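> call design_seq(struct)
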């Protein structure tokens, strides 16, 4: 029974080493020495063959029992070390889940979009449809159909970005008038906000890309009185306060008579600044009664129908409302600027 004795010794010694191991590598070392391929248990099993056949069954069982016990004890102890290591790591890496989260940074609408949406609401309540048109336009929609023939000097008033295919970047939102008239016919109440482009020298009050809001109403017997009513409604809706306005004759080929509706500069209060070019007034709302040729060119009979149209400078309006004195800030993409709105 020499084998039995050495097995019992191995069992005791190994359990003691497992018990006293203070770290995973110590435990592992004890396991390799006892249970490894070249370990004590393997050495003992080598003598197995020398045993008398009647001893083998008994000793074989014992050998398996010791092996299983030691392996189980090893696994138990190993799991304990791993749990402890995890607990230590977690105690080092804890976070306070009760702290307020930084959260998603709230976005906001661009000031031009805010004003655009307000004006859309206003005109929707007055029975106007909101129309959209393409930014790349045909020459016909942008000029010809608006009573601006090729030789007309008014084409020089708007420095145009021409495309190589003969189309252009729309210089104003007025071509949407043409699209609206041709699609819906009279009577018609529509507005068309959108982006417009001109080959301009950029400075504090000029950008090559800016926003306008076109408006048009066609019905029977529309007069300047109707025009003024709608323009006043528009301005009081936008500014929520009294603004000083002046109406002067203005020339645009698509209206007759045409007007320039100016507002007293809200940046400087009328004393003169870079936005109003020291004049105290800002051109905001050119408008007029639709020229009979414009109606005719879109198949509307001017003897039966009349109307007014206006082209609001949305970008400029945003500047006036928020006291922005440099148009370049609006498109600069600087979040420190945009976060204020
Ligand atoms: N489209 C003109 C421009 O951008 C502005 C304008 C003037 C529009 C008079 C109108 C209008 O509808 O009646 O310079």
């Amino acid at each position: 029974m020499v084998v039995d004795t050495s097995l019992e010794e191995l069992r005791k010694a190994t359990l003691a080493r497992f018990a006293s191991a203070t770290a995973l590598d110590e435990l592992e070392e004890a396991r390799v020495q006892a249970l490894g391929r070249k370990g004590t248990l393997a050495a003992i099993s080598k003598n197995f063959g020398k045993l008398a056949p009647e001893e083998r069954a008994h000793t074989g069982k014992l050998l398996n029992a010791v092996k299983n016990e030691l392996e189980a004890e090893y696994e138990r102890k190993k799991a304990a070390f791993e749990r402890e290591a995890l607990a230590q790591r977690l105690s080092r890496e804890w976070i306070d889940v009760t702290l307020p989260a930084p959260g998603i940074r709230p976005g906001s609408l661009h000031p031009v979009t805010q004003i655009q949406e307000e004006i859309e609401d206003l005109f929707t309540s007055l029975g106007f449809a909101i129309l959209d048109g393409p930014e790349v336009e045909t020459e016909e929609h942008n000029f010809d159909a608006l009573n601006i023939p090729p030789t007309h000097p008014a084409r020089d008033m708007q420095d145009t970005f021409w495309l190589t295919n003969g189309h252009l970047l729309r210089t104003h939102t007025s071509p949407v008038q043409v699209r609206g008239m041709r699609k819906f016919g009279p009577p018609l109440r529509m507005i068309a906000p959108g982006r417009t482009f001109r080959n301009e020298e950029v400075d504090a009050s000029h950008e090559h890309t800016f926003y306008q809001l076109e408006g048009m109403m066609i019905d029977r017997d529309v007069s300047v009185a109707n025009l003024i009513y709608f323009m006043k409604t528009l301005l009081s809706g936008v500014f929520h306060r009294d603004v000083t306005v002046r109406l002067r004759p203005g020339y645009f080929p698509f209206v007759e008579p045409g007007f320039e509706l100016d507002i007293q500069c809200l940046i400087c209060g009328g004393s003169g600044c870079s936005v109003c070019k020291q004049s105290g007034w800002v051109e905001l709302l050119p408008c007029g009664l639709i020229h009979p040729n414009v109606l005719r060119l879109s198949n509307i009979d001017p003897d039966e129908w009349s109307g007014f149209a206006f082209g609001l400078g949305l970008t400029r309006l945003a500047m006036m409302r928020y006291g922005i004195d440099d148009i370049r800030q609006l498109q600069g993409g600087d979040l420190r600027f945009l976060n204020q709105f």
